[in-house]
Design a protein that fits this description.
Shape: elongated
Strand content: over 45%
Largest sheet: 16 strands, antiparallel, barrel
CATH architecture of the largest domain: Beta Barrel
Radius of gyration: 46 Å
Oligomer: single chain
CATH class of the largest domain: Mainly Beta
CATH topology of the largest domain: Porin
Distance between the termini: 139 Å
Order of helices and strands: HEEEEEEEHHEEEEEEEEEEEEEEEEEE
Strand order of the largest sheet: 3-4-5-6-7-8-9-10-12-17-18-19-22-23-24-25
CATH superfamily of the largest domain: Porin
Number of helices: 3
Number of domains: 2
């Protein structure tokens, strides 16, 4: 009985469970179908991604190839550029010295050059002389030119001045250098004195010593030779006249010797020069000078025109530079040979000067037997104020001798020179000129009086 009941219960349970099992199988089949569909989609997506990856890898390979080629091309270009720069550097170089100076293999060089100087100031003269005074100004110099070297030891220099509404050739020369000797042909400065040969860019006063203009020192056309060995410099030349005054039969000869040793750190300078000029028949000479500044046309010492057959002059020079100090003294004697047995006068000019730099580390430049460029130790633009120099000078010009009364001029000068940089300068001068036997008397006939002068200059060069 119990067995029958158990069997009946089992059959009944199976009968009741059959519909539930059928339902679970259907759901499982649906889920399996959905999973298959998902897996098929995933497989399709994987195939797509693999295709995209293969395409990307192919593009990457192309990009890597192109990058390698570009890198090689860049490397080649860099090597070519480096070689070109090295070749250019080996053949030419450019240095800046106020203006570009180009140098190339074989001895070539080229440099533009120029200077601009503006002057202004006042002169005060006794009113009863009737001479003009007051404010004056001018473009003292406005020069442009070129200079350089050529293969074989040759050189050239050409410069033109445009100041004063005139165009005048200053330097126009060709030179040849061989060892310690240099030969030059053309228009150039003659070898008259330290003051005259020092460039107007490097003088300590607004104008040179009075005798340099009074005795007619100027550039002339000719041939010159310079010999330099150690501390000894010898200069000599034969000349005609200034280019503007040719053609005539005037000729001259100049010679100068300089000994410039060192005494410790000090630079010494000793020199002497001689000069002879032969003048064409009927020529005249005239010795005269302005009171310190050039922007006035007044001259208070003047010999007037003198008929002359020749001139002979000689000069002595001495100078030293010791740190911020410098001193210089010169004297020049000019003898004039007058015709028809007249007494031959000898005129004199000279000066003595001392100077001191107020700024630390500055000193006056010197090179080749003359004063050279001052280079401030601490220029403007590099944290400094440039160089400041104070100078004092006594200047004398005596144009009276052998019955000729051209007057004497004694000048007492002070100057303050500020150089912000190597190639710029501002300069202020004061001068008191003491005249004896001046050629312009006062209303009472007095020819002994004073003239006061103030002058300033702004200068730049390259």
């Amino acid at each position: 009985m119990k067995r029958n009941l158990l069997l009946a219960a089992s059959v009944s349970a199976m009968l009741f469970a059959q519909p539930a099992l059928a339902q679970d199988n259907a759901e499982l089949a649906a889920e399996l179908a959905e999973m298959r569909a998902t897996m098929a989609a995933m497989a399709e997506r994987i195939d797509s991604l693999e295709a995209e990856l293969a395409e990307a890898e192919a593009k990457a390979d192309v990009a890597v190839t192109q990058a390698a080629a570009a890198s090689q091309a860049a490397s080649t270009a860099s090597e070519t550029a480096t070689a070109a720069v090295a070749a250019a550097g080996a053949g030419a170089s450019i240095a800046f010295k106020g203006a570009p100076e180009i140098k190339a293999d074989g001895g070539w060089s080229f440099k533009p050059r120029g200077r601009l100087q503006y002057d202004a100031g006042f002169t005060s003269v006794p009113s009863s002389t009737g001479r003009s005074d007051g404010f004056g100004s001018e473009a003292r110099r406005a020069r442009l030119g070129v200079s350089g070297d050529m293969p074989g030891g040759f050189g050239y220099k050409f410069e033109v001045d445009f100041a004063g509404n005139d165009v005048a050739v200053t330097d126009a020369l060709i030179s040849y250098e061989a060892g310690d000797a240099e030969i030059a042909v053309g228009q150039m400065n003659n070898f008259q004195s330290l003051e005259e040969l020092t460039s107007s860019l490097h003088t300590s006063f607004i104008e040179r010593a009075a005798f340099t203009d009074a005795f007619g020192f100027e550039r002339r056309v000719g041939a010159a030779a310079t010999f330099s060995s150690g501390d000894v410099l010898i200069q000599t030349g034969l000349f005609t006249d200034n280019m503007e005054d040719l053609s005539n039969k005037n000729w001259s000869a100049d010679g100068r010797v300089v000994f410039s040793p060192k005494a410790g750190d000090a630079q010494l300078h000793f020199g002497g020069s001689v000069h002879y000029s032969d003048l064409e028949a009927g020529e005249t000479v005239r010795y005269r000078q302005r009171p310190l500044v050039h922007f006035t046309s007044e001259r208070f010492v003047n010999t007037g025109n003198l008929g002359a057959t020749s001139e002979f002059g000689f000069g002595l020079e001495g100078a030293f530079i010791a740190g911020p100090f410098h001193g210089v003294v010169e004297g020049h004697w000019q003898n004039v040979n007058l015709p028809m047995g007249a007494a031959d006068p000898t005129f004199f000019g000279g000066y003595a000067e001392v100077g001191y730099f107020l700024t630390k580390g500055d000193t006056r430049g010197y090179k080749g037997g003359k004063f050279d460029r001052t280079k401030p130790a601490n220029p403007v633009g590099e944290g400094g104020m440039g160089s400041v120099q104070l100078n004092a000078r006594y200047d004398r010009l005596d144009l009276s001798d052998a019955g000729i009364v051209g007057g004497t001029q004694d000048g007492y000068f002070l100057s303050l020179v500020w150089k912000p940089t190597d190639y710029t300068m501002l300069l202020a001068n004061y001068g008191k000129l003491d005249y004896s036997n001046a050629v312009h008397p006062t209303a009472t006939g007095d020819t002994d009086y004073n003239v006061d002068v103030v002058g300033v200059r702004a200068q730049i060069d390259f």
